[in-house]
Amino acid sequence: MRQKYPIALMCRAFDVSESGFHAQRTRPVCKRKQENTRLEIEILAAHQRTRETYNAERLHYDLADHGVQTTPYRVRTLRKKLNLRCKQKLKFKATTDSKHHLPVAPNILNREFAVNAPDKVWVSDITYIPTDEGWLYLAGVKDLFNGELVGYAMNERMTRSLVIQALFRATAKKHPDKGLIAHSDSKNTCTRFQ
């Protein structure tokens, strides 16, 4: 821009003195600006470290825990400047439907969780995991004797094949004897996936 317009003309247009313009160009960066630049980097790192879920006040405490001294107001101001926002929590997704007319398998286990040998009682359940792409369902099968995860399966949908795949993987891995009790406390799972 200096090649096209003389400095004197630009200074007059912006109502700035020429001496002020030249002084600003040679003046060192002020301490506050340097500190803000360093804080911006720290705030970005803390924002990512906290999985973008902390507001300004919690972010301030996190920074203090990591040895960065500042004020909540300054964190709020710099977050706004950097356009950082907390991720919104995904809406709760119910996975159990107890209001149905399907037959329910009998509760053979009856809360007797003490088991004296492996591969006698397996328990299973389905949970969901929020991801950036949406929900992911995890069906897990655990041996009650030692707490070992003997089988699992994941899918984008909670289907009959998800539970069957988890049980199949468990039986393929452990080869249990006859008489194994496979229990799920989720009535939804017991009825829907029989």
Automatic annotation (TrEMBL):
Q: Which organism is it from?
A: Nitrosomonas ureae
Q: Where is the HTH-like domain?
A: 38-91
> Where in this chain does the record put each Integrase catalytic domain?
116-190
Domain of life according to the entry: Bacteria
Tell me, which GO biological process terms does this entry list? DNA integration
Among InterPro entries, the record links this protein to: HTH-like_dom, Integrase_cat-core, RNaseH-like_sf, RNaseH_sf, Transpos_IS3, Transposase_IS3/IS150/IS904
Name of the protein in question: Putative transposase
Task: Read off the Pfam families from this record.
Answer: HTH_21, rve
UniProt-recorded Gene Ontology molecular function terms: nucleic acid binding
